[in-house]
Design goal:
Layout: H1 13-29, E1 38-39, E2 46-52, E3 66-72, E4 80-87, H2 92-99, E5 111-119, E6 131-135, E7 144-148, E8 152-154, H3 163-166, H4 170-182, E9 194-197, H5 203-214, E10 219-223, E11 236-238
Parallel strand pairs: 9-10, 10-11
Antiparallel strand pairs: 1-5, 2-3, 4-5, 4-7, 5-6, 6-8
Length: 242
Amino acid sequence: FFFSPLLRIPLSGDTTMSYILFVLLLAESCREVSSAVKYADGVPSTTRAVRVAKGVKCTRTDFSCLVIETIDTPKPAFGEVLVNVSTSSVNPSDVDFVVGNAAGIDKLGVDFSGTVVAVGDGCSKFKIGDAIWGMTISGAYADYTTAICAESGHAPQTDSVPLNVVGTLPEVAETSHNCLTKCGAPWDRSRNISAVITSGSGGTGFVGIQLAKIFNAATVITSTSMYIPKRYGLRSAFDGLF
């Protein structure tokens, strides 16, 4: 994967996200369908989902291998919920899955936000009707998907951050958060820390800028050819190399 970690990070973002996805994959391989699932009214028996067609090769310029299939609505395993998906996003990991860098994976969409419509055994964190967000390896490019309770959280409920925005953030926010904390964030304000974040207009970068400011960076600097509002916390931006 390619992400935009801070220049001085010894552990790159791709290592961090590879570990997270490995844990999610391991959990998926060990899942056991919960015996007592509480469902909301109106949950259909089938759902639409984007899949990678078997025997069809995709490239980074040709994604004709992707198809929309009708599948059985998944049942949450122990410690999982079933989510009516509001939003997902496209990350480098999704592209890698499609072009064959992650062999055998045909379920696409890691990021998600949505509403809980069923709760499996072992999940007391959520209830039916909760708006949640997180990452899943069960495939968020679908009307319904399952998610691990421990890897999901309650979605912010504000007019300025609607659910369809929250669904674009989990993977990039996790990457930026991990990179910054590896550099000691949150910092003591008295240290007058300057944070340099590469590719500030990228998916990871623009989140990293805001998190760096929240984590008490006195100055946030990036390199970008695109306009980034100063309200994000940016002090300086350079067009080109620096």
